[in-house]
Every structure is written in structure tokens, then in C-alpha cells.
Amino acid sequence: MDSAVVSLLSAFVLSLIGLFAFMWSMRKGLFVENPKAAGTIFAPGEVGKADDPSLTPSGEARLQQAIDETQDKGRELQQAEDPQELEDRIEADRSTSFPAFMFIGFAVMWLVVGSLAGLTASLKLHWPDWLVGEAWETFGRMRTYHLTAVLYGWITNCELGIIVWLLPRLMRTPLRGPLFVMMGGALINVGIASAIGGFGAGWTAGMEYLEIPWQIGIFLVLGFVCIIIPVISTVVHRKAHEIYVSAWYHVGSLLWIALLFTVAKFPGAHYGVEQATMNWWYGHNVLGLWFTPAALGAIYYFLPKVIGRRVSSYNLSILGFWTLAFFYAQVGGHHLVGGPVPEWLITLSIVQSMMMIVPVAAFSVNMAGTMWGRMKLALYSPTLRFMMFGGFMYMLSSVQGSFEALRSVNRVAHFTHFTVAHAHLGAYGFVTMVLFGAVYFMLPRILRWEWPFPRLISWHFWLAAIGILIYFGPLTYGGWLQGLAMLDESRPFMDSVTLTIPYLYWRSIGGSMMVASHLIFAFHVLVMVLRFGPNRTGAALFNHEPRKLEVAHGK
């Protein structure tokens, strides 16, 4: 039995398991609107209260005033509050501070390395004779450094940090086996560093998103196993009666990435066309079943927490999780339109790509309902600004991706910079911006220290937001023109290359702004870790009394 059949059967079996889990969930009433579950992230006194550790006391006072002006008192009184939530949360934070900081520290380091490599690769597209003296400086290797450092170094580490920090909070119990978690993080980062060193020496598996050789991939698999076991143990020993939706997304994403990476890197299993099929099965699923659910889980926690208001519909949040699990598994096949693969496989991929509109609509409607009449709060809260921007980019990139799967659109967009722009809209405009917001919320609690220079957070946001829009817009338009030129038989191929040059300049301008924002972010994290900068209120708002911060930040 060949690997393509095995992969499809595995996906079918997983879908059946998901279907039975869905049926069990309905029998247990998990799809009945559940205000108690939606309010499980709040302790007494937190409903209707602003909570953004990236703000100064005066900034939080302005945010609180804006919240009071928009608060629906009748609705908020329905909120469930547990008197033990606060104590359990503080205990959970104590158990996760060092593992979470380790992951965030690695993530920031790889973000700087990966973004500098990405900018170098971008510049080489219109300065092809720049840095060509050594093999490790060439575009192909530079782009591979960028992909691995950003996707596995930055996004994966940061999402692991969020999961490790947030899940014990949601389960209301200390993290089990923190040393195993840290050992897993060390293995993953040893693998990433070894892979990038191998790329420089010319050792690569040669598949996009799967460039890491399987011999090095073993480190990543072992690392995920070391993290999954304590995470599952933490869930099993939970005190919480309700499992908040963020925990569904985070546990699911962690199990999915371990399975995806293991199957995709299994040595000697995939060859030829089957290898290409597996490549894009993994390439799309690493975005949709790892990066996406981990980021959505973060939004579902941090956005309501900042504004002190439960999500509009807990029902829709669960629906979004299950439909994401059902529909995403086979969407990668649309990258093989026109290739030597069965037409039914392509059609299945296109259908599932269009069905992805369902979970995207569920999330978008839910967030719009939660923020209805409260959009102006983004003016006051940096964390909320990052979360809202990321949520909007999720909707935009997902809808664009669904239509991009159609044969008529794919015919023009495939093999062009249009696809590159789309990938960055999802991985950066959505996922990375959400991760920035989460770090700004988490790090003051992890380090027990305030952000020294709040103005740098605004600089970071605007440089990153404007940078990705400059990157995405011109490159999307230029990529479409490139596709039309390649389809025109009367035009030489070089026309499709030369016409993209102006848009590649815009790509580098946008990329430069993004890199500048990353340097500001990394600098701000560093001075915070070293306790430099102005000391606004003493030893962070914790000051040996973390309960004060948890009940009402800054008071």
C-alpha cells in the first residue's frame, strides 16, 4: 500500500474520530450556550475591568473609562465568577514563569535572526549580485534560513510559550512536569539551530516547510513529546469544571503538530508525486492546524480579558473549533492544481478550502459581536490593537485563501508572488501580530516587571502593521500581473520577471519596516529583562502582591 493511500486513510480515520468526538460533545450539551464556560477566565471583581499590563496606570485609567462608557451592565451581570479562580491562577503562574520565559526568549532571538535573513532574501530578488561570494549567502539558502527561523523558531516557540503559560491558568492547576517542558524546548531549539547550520552547509531535505532533514527532525519530535505529556497531565489533573475554548484550540494544535511533523518526516515513506502530495498536505496543515488554532486560542483568551467581557457566543467559538478540525485536513491539495495527481484529490481540496469559510465566519461573527460598539477601545489598549488587527487579517487571509484554491484563480496566481503575499498575510498579518499582543500581555506577569517604554509598543505596532500592508498590497497586485504575463503565449517569460521588479522594491520597503519593528520589540524585551529604563511604580505592578495586579491592574 503506497504512502498516498495511507495518508488519505489516516485523514479519513482522524475525521471519523473527530465526528464521534463531535457527537459526544453534542450529547454532553457542549454546544448549548454556556455563559458559565465563557466566564471561567474571570475572577470576582474582574468583569467589566480593564486588564492590559502593557499600559501605564494613567493609560489603563483611560481604557477603563472607555470600557465603562460602552459596558452593557445587564449582560455582564450574567457572568459566572469563581471565588477560587484568582488563587488558582496565581499558583499556576508561579509554576509556568520560567518555562514560558524560556520559550519567549528563544522566540524573540529567532525572530530577529529570521527577519534579517528574510530581508536579505527580499533584497537579493532585485539586487541579484549582492552577497554571492559564498554558497551560504545565496538566495536559496537565505530564504530557507528565514523560513525555518521564523516558522519554527519564532512562531512555534512563541506559541509553545503561550500554551504553557495559559493552559495551567485555564485548568486552574500548576503545570505538571515543568522540567520536562523545558527539556522539550531545549531539544526543539537544538534542532532548529542544527537545521540552520545544516542549510548553510548545503544539507537540506529540499521540500518547502520541510527543509529540516529527518535526522534533525528527530530532535523536534522528541521535544514535542516532552511537552505534550506534561500538558496532557495538567489537563487531566485540572480543577476547572469548565474547559474554556482556548484550551480546546491549544491542546488540539499541540497534538496536531506532533502528528503532522512525524508523518511528514518519516524517513523513506514518501517518493515522487506522493512526496509532493505529502509536502503540501503538511505545508498547509502546519498553518491551519498548528499556527492558526494556537493563535485563535490566544485571541479567545486575551481579547475578552483586556476588555473584561465574555465572548459574544460561546457556541460559535466551539463551532469554529470543530469545523476547523473537520475541513482543514485536505486543503493543501490545491497547490497541486495541474500536477500529475488525481483530479478527485484536487477537487476534494478545493471543496474543503471553500468550506473553511464556515469556521472563519464563526470566529469573525463572534469577535464582531464581542467588540460591537467597543471598537474604539483599540485606541487605548496596545494588546487589544494587536489582537484586533490579527483577527481581521485572519478573516481576510482565510477568505482570500479559499478563493485562491479555485481553479480559475489558481491558474493565474500559482507560481507567482501573489502566493508569497498571501502566505505572509496569514503567517505575519494574522499569527505574528496576535503573538506580539500575547507577549505584551504575558511578559509583565512572567517577569514581574513593567514594560519600560510604552511608546515603543506603539512604534512597534505601527511599523509592523503598515509594513505588512505595504508588503502585501503591491506584491499581490504584482503577482497577479506576473501570472497574467506567464499565461500570455505572445510574451517572453522574461517579461513576467521584469514587470515584478517595482513591486519587489515595495516588498523590501515593507519588509524593512517589519524588521525595524522587530528590532524595537527585541530591544524592549531585553531592557525589560535587564530591568533597565524608567521605574514607574516600583518592582512591576506585582511588588510582592500579585493579587493586586490580577484583580485590578495598576491599582
From TrEMBL:
GO terms under cellular component: membrane
Domain of life of the organism encoding this protein: Bacteria
Domain Cytochrome oxidase subunit I profile: 280-555
GO molecular function: cytochrome-c oxidase activity; heme binding
GO BP term (any one): electron transport coupled proton transport
SUPFAM superfamilies assigned to the protein according to its UniProt record, in alphabetical order: Cytochrome c oxidase subunit I-like (SSF81442)
InterPro entries, alphabetized: Cyt_c_oxase-like_su1_dom (IPR023616), Cyt_c_oxase-like_su1_sf (IPR036927), Cyt_C_Oxase_1 (IPR000883)
Keywords: Electron transport, Membrane, Respiratory chain, Transmembrane, Transmembrane helix, Transport
Keyword Transmembrane attributed: yes
Transmembrane segments: 6-26, 100-125, 145-167, 179-200, 212-236, 248-268, 280-302, 314-332, 344-365, 377-396, 425-447, 459-483, 503-527
Transmembrane helix keyword on record: yes
Protein name stated in the entry: Cytochrome oxidase subunit I profile domain-containing protein
Lineage: Bacteria, Pseudomonadati, Pseudomonadota, Betaproteobacteria, Burkholderiales
